[in-house]
Amino acid sequence: MHSMSDASPARRPRALSGAQPTADSYHLGNYIGAFRQWVALQEEFEAFYFIPDLHAITVEYDPELLRERTYVAAAQLLASGVDPSRSALFVQSHVPEHAQLAWVLGGVTGFGEASRMTQFKDKSAKSGHDAASVGLFTYPVLMAADILIYQADKVPVGEDQRQHVELTRNLAQRFNHRFGPTFTVPEAHIVKQVAKIYDLQDPTSKMSGSSVSHAGVIDLTDTAKQAAKKIRSAVTDSGSDIRFDRAEKPGIANLLTIFSAVTGRDVDDLVAEFEGQQYGHLKVALGEVVGDFVQSFGDRTRELLDDRAELDRILAAGATRAREVAAPTLASVYERSGFVVPRADA
Ligand code: TYM
User: Fold this and answer.
1) In 111-249, which residue ranges form alpha helices assigned H by DSSP?
2) Position in ligand 1 atom list of the atom nearest CA 160
3) Does any ligand 1 atom lie closer than 6 A to the CB of residue 29?
4) Quick one: pLDDT at residue 345?
5) What is the per-residue pLDDT across 149-195, written as a single tens digit (0 to 9) for each?
6) Nearest CA residue ID for atom 4, ligand 1
7) What is the C-alpha to C-alpha distance for residues 31 and 230, in angstroms, rounded to an integer?
8) What are the C-alpha distances in Å from 144 to residues 17, 163, 169?
């Protein structure tokens, strides 16, 4: 005979991810490397997708811009196919449990292991190490809290977030070991072929919203014309044959990756189609494909942005759903941490 608890329905596995609202728009790398996976996972997973505004304040920023960018981010995630009737879509600061858990996790994070985070090293190198904020340093601890507060199983991200998810796993295991089983140990979900989309002007560095020049960055707010032009001006490699070779032909490999991701066609299939043609042919064809894509993506985004009240409703419902899961996790963490439970009737 099964006991009652054995018979209780198993919960669906959970997926969780976030994307920072630190630029005027997300870019094609975010969409291909991350958002498409978010959307695909909503079928099978109970999903939590959010806009990490608390993370966005760890570098210099403008408060009014942040507010506007948060709405744009919400609209672009919806335009990407995040479905609020299936997944919780919310703003990080609306769920205070993230910051509360981050503080507790800070107590089990080593200064040394936090110092080894390469993204911190890269970002703090930009401003000069001493000018970097303490928030930027503890950023990965908050990210661990984002993930662990939902007992997430899978975290769909691009390659650049792998180390942060690894830290999250270590913190979960350490906490579980010291205080008893509390957290699900999550796994990164990184789709190798698209995990790193490169800058069109510099196909050895990743496409990034914080790049000074956006000549090599397709923003999801670009017009069809702008996007097509950026693709046509992409830096390509020496030689002239079109084949997929990351080491020898990083520029062409990047264009083929983007082509494949946006159309759903196999890279092999594309290589066969363009065999014997020149780089220019590939660029013109891809320019049209990406142009059409950003055009319809932009149309959908603008429609969504026109109804702020509806966006507010979606984000509020998402935060309510998120807190239903986050609050019990925080309660059990506080209990295991040895905090006295506040008694309303005391
Ligand atoms: P962020 O905001 O920099 O990027 C959002 C997502 O897009 C992916 N990405 C890329 N993928 C492929 N090619 C690229 N050129 C490219 N650029 C960005 C990122 O890997 C990411 O998946 N720390 C996170 C945000 C975050 C988070 C979390 C993520 C906060 N809390 C909890 C997951 C779980 C970040 O800065 O991503």
Assistant:
1) 111-115, 118-127, 134-148, 162-179, 224-232
2) 20
3) yes
4) 86
5) 999 999 999 999 999 999 999 999 999 999 999 999 999 999 999 99
6) 19
7) 17
8) 11, 11, 8
